[in-house]
Design a protein that fits this description.
extended, 4 strands, two-stranded antiparallel ribbon, 97 residues, alpha+beta
Length: 97
């Protein structure tokens, strides 16, 4: 579906009828975060397999948090502000980890 000027246009083909199909939100979320494999089947009959993992230092935000912090810059700014109000002793301990 596309939304254009407060009007919804149904672009779904009729053969894609999902009536009565119950999706489960986040069903594979935990497994995906641990890592996942993508297999690309090439025209010549070969297959390329790639394994993806979460990048070192990457953090997954929960949807409710993502509403407020949608960019890496906004997350880092908020965390730096939080760090600045921590007592000095806690800041040194956190930096050591």
């Amino acid at each position: 579906m596309k939304t254009t000027n407060a009007k919804t246009v149904d672009t779904m083909k009729k053969e894609y009828d999902f009536t009565g199909v119950a999706g489960v939100r986040g069903k594979y979320h935990k497994a995906y975060r641990k890592g996942h494999t993508v297999t690309v089947h090439n025209e010549d009959g070969t297959a390329t397999v790639q394994y993806f993992t979460q990048e070192d230092g990457a953090v997954m935000l929960e949807p409710d948090v993502r509403k407020y912090f949608s960019t890496p810059e906004s997350v880092n700014k908020a965390l730096r502000m939080l760090i600045s109000v921590l007592p000095e002793k806690n800041r040194k301990m956190e930096a050591a980890h």
